[in-house]
Amino acid sequence: MATIEIRDVGEIEILRAALQSGVSNAIDSIRTILEFETDTSQILQLLHFPETPPTAIDFQRLSLIDQVARTSAFLAVLAAARWLMERHPESNGLTMRTEC
After folding, report:
1. Which residues have C-beta within 8 Å of that of residue 30, sequence separation ≥ 6?
2. CA atoms in the 13 A half-sphere facing the CB of 20
3. Which mean pLDDT values do the consecutive 10-residue runs of the chain (100 residues) have?
4. What is the distance between the alpha carbons of residues 70 and 14, in angstroms, rounded to a whole number?
5. Alpha-carbon gap, residue 100 to 94, rounded angstroms
6. d(CA 38, CA 16)
7. Dist. CA 94–CA 63, nearest whole Å
8. Residue 15, SS3?
9. Hey, CA dihedral for 69, 70, 75, 76, is it positive or negative?
10. Which pLDDT belongs to residue 59?
């Protein structure tokens, strides 16, 4: 389990920027698969077992489908963290634990 300490909203933006890079890579991979592959079973296989680099946050090799799901969940957590920190500036930050 990984732990991420967030002390201010600026750190949330740093994490979001790191995620955006990974999202861009995943989207480019999906576009390439759909552009060059016509066999639907092969498309599904490539979405589940691609040759992609590790993601920006957890440094694991994930399928494109898992990358989209995990990134969406992580973006939701970051939005909630921003909301909490903006409404409770007196807090000493937040600790996020992820299953990586």
Report:
1. 47, 64
2. 6
3. 84 88 82 89 81 52 78 88 90 78
4. 17
5. 18
6. 33
7. 29
8. helix
9. positive
10. 46
Q: Mark residue 36 as left, alpha or beta (left: phi above 0; alpha: psi -120 to 50; beta: remaining).
A: alpha
Phi, psi (rounded to 5 degrees) for 55: -75, 160
According to the model, what pLDDT value does residue 60 have?
56
**Dist CA 56 CA 82 (whole Å):** 20
Q: List C-alpha distances in Å: 74 to 37, 46, 68, 85, 89.
A: 30, 23, 10, 16, 22
pTM exceeds cut of 0.85: no
> What sign has the CA pseudo-torsion 10, 95, 79, 61?
positive
Q: Report yes or no: 60 and 73 within 8 Å, Cβ to Cβ.
A: no
DSSP letter for each residue of 25-88: HHHHHHHHHHHH---HHHHHHHHHS---PPPTTT-----HHHHHHHHHHHHHHHHHHHHHHHH-
Residues in contact with 86: Cβ distance below 8 Å, sequence separation at least 6, in sequence order: 9
